[in-house]
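look at this:
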Amino acid sequence: MASTTIGPWDYVGIIGTGQSLSVGTPPALTTEQPYDNLKLSLGPKGNAAVPPWDPALRELSLVPLVEPLRAVAVDYPSPYPANTWGETLHTAMANQVSALVRAASAGDNYLSVHTVVGESGQGIAELSKHGGDTTGITGRAYAATLFEVAAIARLAREAGRSYGVSAIVLTHGETDSGNPTYRAELDQLQADYQRDLAALTGQTRKIPIYVSQQHAYPNGAASQGARPLINQLQWQLGRERPDEFVCTGPKYQFAASKENDGVHLSALGYQMLGEKLGQVYYAREVLKQDWRPLAPLSVSRTGQVVTVAFHVPVPPLVWDESFDDPTIRAWSKGKGFELRAGDVQIPIASVHIRNASIEIAAVEPLPEGELVVGYALTSQGEQLSTASKAVRWGKLRDSDPFVGASSRRSNPNYCVSFELPVP
């Protein structure tokens, strides 16, 4: 064990919830634990009988965090504890944080304990505190969280260790892509977790929700206005309330599952998502930096040119030319950028990087009334031909040299999807 364990507690809890992208896919890749990170074992067979939710069960124990987390699910929908399907993002995330801590100081370690309670295909209503029948096959996520946290808190006390929950990782949104009440439900989820988890651990520290944007739904032709409502608020919440919500960026850049359905990731994709989360978590929770994703700051217009200024985590901005051009004709030269007046698509002539800004030139004079600039928000109606197979994407990224500790793959920051009115 490393000589010094840093962090707010000896055991730092991280909760993973969401729908299918939160519970992984086969095969398990991250099968070794070199940094002492942990998970809760539900007995020799990995599936102690819950419910009832009894954190005092004597077969519970803390074991090394590796994938798969528990016995792999075989049915859909599959309730906790048999809710995971293979490689999740969590072991890669934990190991990435530990690796960054170790690289900064060879004598230090950061020990996290991960809980994964997500449910495939379920909307946020099923993940909430009042999410349904906790004895059935859906709606167990919140009750499972409280069960695991209470159990880990007990085991930590018995070991003479301190324990608290540092973050919730929410990998979610496809089912709720058009949900107009999603912001309010996210607010309630964060508030409920803050109150109920603090009651179990005794902590006063804030418990932020880390969220990555969804890019699968709604699908279909751009002429049908296939733009998600929730992608906008997923990054806006991080900008408006950074103590409670952290947007880690998009997922359209990560490799897809073997089915290439434009929704799910491959095991490598989940591993890289976990590494990005680990990098962001390390910056915010360990280094106490104000990390934010590659995202817009302001918009202006001059003549036929719309200029978007960006927060760039690691300058300079660059185009990822391995990605296809957009398939929507009016925006085929936009590299992911969109201009529209209502539902009318404004053709883009060119886009150019100017320091930390993008200049978007329209083919014709811009309308003087309503005008909106967007990025990677409208479904292309087709899938990206690269490994990610996303249905909405863009080419803009930063120059972050970050390479994941588990995947050994380059993992820069890609621009969030967004829409903003042009003044």
Summary: The CA atoms of residues 185 and 361 lie 38 Å apart.
